[in-house]
Amino acid sequence: MPAHSTRARKAVIPAAGLGTRFLPATKATPKEMLPVVDKPAIQYVVEEAAHSGLDDVLMVTGRNKRALEDHFDRAYELEQLLELKDDKEKLLKVRESSELATVHYVRQGNPLGLGHAVLCAEPHVGDQPFAVLLGDDLIDPRDQLLAQMLDVQEQHGGSVIALMEVDPDRAHLYGCAAVRPLEDGAEDTVLRVTDLVEKPEPGTAPSNLAVIGRYVLAPEIFEVLHRTAPGRGGEIQLTDALRELAADPSLGGPVHAVIFRGRRYDTGDRGEYLRAVVRLACEREDLGPDFRDWLAEFVRTDGKV
């Protein structure tokens, strides 16, 4: 019987980063609030958590992140105005973000890395398994990655990470995992993690399986993080703590991996952010047909539309 077979019910979303890759746009606007078509990126992440059954969300924020709290709060004056105009469509859109989940907030006073951000969630999470969703990674809602990870954690206990195959020449840009098949070999998308390395030196990665921004963690991760020394970049790396758990499952259960082969949008990179906007706009029923026609003509004429 797994050490923790209770299904996770809470989600933690680290959102304290400064978003320097998107300056000057993020000088006064949190990077998580940058729009992806007509919703801020962070709303897609909260939607994913809520649709997976995690309706208790803790955001780990920092300075200048008040816009996040405002977005997931009620906007009574705006709602009243839309009601007076009988604009039901926009009213539903405005209310949607405040009705997705119960959202809590905690400040990460010092920017000491992802591991430290997760530690800030300890008082809220307690002794239950929980999910961590990084706001830069958007997972297409048609690909039920988080739901599958929650199932794996409930079945096997311990912690679960998401891995994605990358070009071996780019493996040094990610945390990478060494894995082996499960004992019964029944699932080819679920593997046992034996080692993890955060941004290995070029040519030394244990595999081309890169860690992406979805985790389901056993509460024992907090005890390990408390004694995890700062690693690469002088930050407390969540990867280092997970590596310890993978090496000694007696500390808090094994670490499993779900191999993700679906649609992922990295909104932390400017080029990928633009591609995410285009892809999601193309698939919208209300925007897609006209936008795809314009885009095809734009490409055909080398941008001279």
Question: What does it look like?
Answer:
There is one protein chain. The chain has 305 residues and is of the alpha/beta class. It has 2 domains: 259 residues, Spore Coat Polysaccharide Biosynthesis Protein SpsA, Chain A (Alpha-Beta Complex), CATH 3.90.550; 37 residues, no CATH class. It is 33% helix and 23% strand. The strands form 3 sheets. A 9-stranded mixed beta sheet has the order 5-4-1-6-11-8-12-10-9. α3 runs antiparallel to α4. The N and C termini lie far apart (62 Å).
User: Overall 3D geometry?
Assistant: globular
For CATH, the homologous superfamily of the largest domain is named as Spore Coat Polysaccharide Biosynthesis Protein SpsA, Chain A
Mean pLDDT: 90
**Strand tally:** 13
Q: Strand share of the residues?
A: 15-25%
How far from one another are the termini?
Answer: 62 Å
Largest sheet entry: 9 strands, mixed
Uncertain runs are none
**Secondary structural class:** alpha/beta
**What is the helix fraction of residues, given as a range?**
25-40%
Number of helices in the DSSP assignment = 11
